[in-house]
Specification:
By secondary structure, this protein is α+β, with helices and mostly antiparallel strands. The chain has two domains: about 1-75; about 75-215 and about 220-240, 2-Layer Sandwich (Alpha-Beta Plaits), CATH 3.30.70. It has six helices and six strands; from the N terminus they run H-H-H-E-H-E-H-E-E-E-H-E. The chain has a four-stranded antiparallel beta sheet with strand order 1-2-5-4. Strands 3-6 form a two-stranded parallel sheet. Strand 4 and strand 5 (about 200-210) form a beta hairpin. The longest helix has about 70 residues, at about 5-75. The protein is rod-shaped and about 140 Å long. It starts with 5 loop residues before the first helix and ends in a 17-residue tail after the last strand.
């Protein structure tokens, strides 16, 4: 039977507290330290983790761009410039009506022909004015605002009438398939002209142009010509026509067709 009085029990509790006071204070201090570390250190830890994630992403981007740069260093710069110039001449980056007219006039001149009529439906000429590309967080550059939509495509329909003898007109048709800028003849109609011994040939054709598109993501591998290299080699054999535009016929012209 327990004969301890309340006074005795109180003395025992006090004795226990006195003996373990240091331990209790230490535990309380440790718990407080843990709470402080959690409250103060966790946000910093989260920020550090986010910073590390960003550094890793930047490192990957840098590695990809370095690989691209090393790939570019292996390419022939002069050939790249020559190929780009050739392709832009074949398919310019804008509608370039003036260049189209110059090419037609040069073809006519080289084949002893004259141009008696020219008309084109280029659509909105202002569509060739390109807006600035918009950067994308992923590293890609968005496609330039599409002038094709406003212009109804990437071709220019035109008609032109050449006048001369039959053999010269035949040579011109052949030259049109071997000359830059690229054109595609849809129809050719021949009729006697008002000049003695001359023939009029009305061509309905289209010329091509292509606005710049997506410049690609930094992580994309370098594009290669691949099978298109043969196309570039073929285009290199085409004639490039240049010069100053001459006045085209104006006023009312009676069509013989």
């Amino acid at each position: 039977m327990d004969t301890q009085t309340p006074m005795t029990q109180t003395q025992e509790v006090q004795g226990f507290l006195e003996k373990n006071l240091t331990t209790l204070i230490t535990l309380a201090s440790f718990a407080s330290a843990i709470a402080i570390i959690f409250l103060v250190g966790y946000p910093r830890f989260s920020a550090l983790k986010e910073a590390r994630t960003q550094v890793d992403a930047q490192s990957q981007k840098t590695a990809a761009m370095t690989a691209k740069l090393n790939g570019l260093k292996t390419l022939d710069e002069e050939k790249l410039i020559a190929d780009a110039t050739l392709l832009k001449t074949a398919v310019p980056s804008d509608k370039d009506i003036t260049g189209l007219v110059i090419g037609l006039q040069q073809m006519a001149s080289q084949n002893s022909l004259s141009i008696t009529q020219f008309s084109a439906t280029p659509g909105n000429l202002g569509a060739s004015a390109l807006s600035a590309p918009t950067p994308d967080p992923s590293g890609a550059v968005q496609s330039v605002a599409g002038p094709q939509a406003a212009a109804g495509g990437t071709t220019i329909d035109f008609t032109v009438t050449f006048r001369g003898d039959y053999s010269a007109l035949e040579n011109l048709l052949k030259a049109s398939t071997e000359t830059l800028r690229l054109i595609s003849v849809k129809t050719a109609k021949i009729a006697p002209s008002s000049g003695a011994g001359s023939i009029d040939m009305l061509l309905s054709a289209k010329a091509y142009w292509k606005s710049p598109g997506d410049l690609g993501n930094y992580a994309d591998p370098l594009p290669t010509l691949g099978s298109n290299a043969k196309v570039v080699e073929a285009l290199a054999q085409y004639k490039i026509l240049s010069g100053q535009p001459q006045p085209l016929p104006t006023g009312s012209v009676t069509s013989p067709f």
